[in-house]
Amino acid sequence: MTATSSSLRFSGCFVTLLIWAGCTSVVCLVDEKLTAQPTIDTTHGDIPLPLSFACGTNAHSCMEYCRICQDYFGAPTMLCLHTLLQYRCISKFNNSMTSMKSTNWCTWGNVSNYYSNLSHCTEEISDCLMIPWPNPLVEQTFVDIHSRFFKECPSEELSDPPPVIVMALVITPICLIPLMVSLVVLKTKNGDGSS
C-alpha cells in the first residue's frame, strides 16, 4: 500500500469518526453568525439541565442570558444577541431618550449617561454569550441610534470659524501678493538679480 492511499484512507476514517463521534457539540463561526446543532430540551421537570455551551461568568445576569439563548435559540446565536439587545439595552435607551426633549439630545451632558449605559449593556451581553465585542450587530445598533437621535446634531469639527478669522485668512494673502510683486519689480529694475 502506498503512502498516498494510506493517508487518504486515514483521513476518510478520521472524517467519518468526527461525524460519528460527536460533532454535534461543536459551535462554528460562519459569516459572522454563530450556528450550532439543535440541542435537547433544557428542562427536566422543574430542574434546568446544564447549558450545552460555555457561558461567561463576568456578570450576575450571565446565566439568565445564556439560559434564554439555550431555551429559545438553542445556542448563543447572533439572533439571540439581537433579541437580548433589543429588549435589555436598546429599549431602555429609547425610553430614556424619548423621555427628554429632542432639543436636549445634542447636549452631551444630557445623554452621556444613557449612551454609556447602552454601551456597557451591549458589551455585558456579548461577553456573557462569549460573542466578540464589538461585532457587526453592535456596530449597526449604534449606527441606527445615531441616525435616529443624533442625526440633526451639529458637529463642532465641521462648523465654520468666526467671520473675523475668515476675513483675516482671506485678506492676508490678498495683501501679500502686491507686496511680493512690487519687491520682484524693484529688484529686477535695479538689475540686482542676486539676492
Spans of at least 5 consecutive residues whose pLDDT stays below 50 are 1-45
Helix content: 55-70%
Number of helical segments with 4 or more residues: 6
User: Would you tell me which CATH topology of the domain at 37-158 applies?
Assistant: DNA polymerase, domain 1
Helix and strand element order: HEEEEHHHHH
Membrane topology: Single-pass type I membrane protein
Keywords: Cell membrane, Disulfide bond, Membrane, Receptor, Signal, Transmembrane, Transmembrane helix, Transport
Protein name: Receptor activity modifying protein 2
Signal peptide: 1-25
Could you characterize what this model shows?
By secondary structure, the protein is mainly alpha-helical. The termini are far apart. The chain has a two-stranded antiparallel sheet with strand order 1-2. Strands 3-4 form a two-stranded antiparallel ribbon. α3 runs antiparallel to α4.
Jot down its keywords.
195 residues; mainly alpha; DNA polymerase, domain 1; two-stranded antiparallel sheet; two-stranded antiparallel ribbon; signal
